[in-house]
Amino acid sequence: MAAIAAATLGLVGCNADEAPQPQPAQSAETEGAEETSTEFVAPKSREVPEACAELELTLGAQLEGGALGECVGQALSSYGTGKMEISGETTGLVEFSYDPEFNVQGELQSPAGPVKLAYVGGEMWIDSGSGPVKGDAESEVLEEQLAAVAGELTRMYADIEQTVQLIQAQPVWQVAGDFATVELRDGEAVEAYKIVSGGAFSWHEIPVSELIVWFGEDWVPLSTQATVEMMGMRSTNGQEFYDLGEPVTIVPLG
User: Fold this and answer.
1) Distances (CA, A) of 28 to 108, 119, 127, 145, 150
2) Burial (0-12, 13-18, 19+ Cβ within 10 Å), 59
3) Residues 80, 198: Cα–Cα separation, whole Å
4) Distance between CA atoms of 222 and 244, rounded to whole angstroms?
5) Is the pLDDT of residue 151 over 90?
6) With 60 as the cut, is the pLDDT of residue 10 above it?
7) How many CA atoms, within 13 angstroms, populate the side-chain half-sphere of residue 165?
8) pLDDT at 43 over 80
9) Least confident segment among 6-15, 27-36, 177-186, 238-247
């Protein structure tokens, strides 16, 4: 889930900022690299996901984590493409595609400074201001190692199956008794169902203090908010979805 990915990316950014910077000759070479872009076009229509159609979304309802996880996973990817605004310690705008596989690009402001990223075709590129660096877990260059870590975290937390498991890690969820008002980026205010985790829980040994998801009618994804603890740091990050189903063009930084 991107809210958790943003938190972890921010922590990776902090570590990179504190570490010694590699010499320019060691950085990933970008001169002469072929820059390609891919336009991802979502399906023309979107139906209520099958897993969600089996759930009754009503005020005050209690939902079981297993079924809700399947629904949330399908709902987040049901449009195929979209954009999101990240909020919290790390902020910024992100474009993404889930069809045929997960790809993402964005410009973020992390605690360590501005960061551009592109995860395309399983490769992560990060530019923290000194030029694009390609993630390489086997590299002796620290920047490239950290970019590889960020890429793996992004892939892991944005993977739909991981989203399903995240929700299912908490067996009890509660729909708030009243509608929440969510203001969309175009200024429109919509009534939303606020679904809150039934207490703190752990996922992949990461303590999650609270996770909230907001959906509109027909399980339209609106926003999420997660409070997690990693490497001794507590962080609350959110994401707001917009332009769901609109074409996006994702360009590798390198």
Assistant:
1) 21, 16, 11, 11, 16
2) exposed
3) 29
4) 10
5) no
6) no
7) 12
8) no
9) 27-36
Residue at 23: amino acid letter: Q
Among the ranges given (103-112, 145-154, 200-209), the one the predictor scored with the smallest mean pLDDT = 145-154
Cα distance between residue 209 and residue 91, in whole Å: 20
Residue 35 confidence (pLDDT) above 60: no
More confident of the two residues 191 and 159: 191
For residue 122 the two structure tokens come to 């399983």
Cβ 90 vs Cβ 110: under 8 Å: yes
Nearest alpha carbon to residue 11 among 123, 84, 88, 70? 88
Q: What pLDDT was estimated at residue 44? A: 59
Task: Compute the distance between CA of residue 102 and CA of residue 83 in angstroms, rounded to an integer.
Answer: 13
Please report the pLDDT score of residue 194 as a whole number. 97
Cα separation, 3 vs 1, in Å, equals 6
CA distance 147 to 161: 23
- Give the Cβ contact number of residue 223 at 10 Å: 22
Predicted pLDDT of residue 155: 66
Nearest to 5 by CA among 98, 83, 89, 67: 89
| Burial of 253: CB neighbours in 10 Å, binned 0-12, 13-18, 19+ | buried
Place of tokens 């790390």: 90
Kindly tell me the burial class for residue 36, based on how many C-beta atoms sit within 10 Å of its own C-beta (0-12, 13-18, 19 or more): exposed
Give residue 167's pLDDT: 93
**Where is 93: in which H helix or E strand?**
strand 91-97
CA dihedral 173, 159, 131, 18 (to 10 degrees): 50
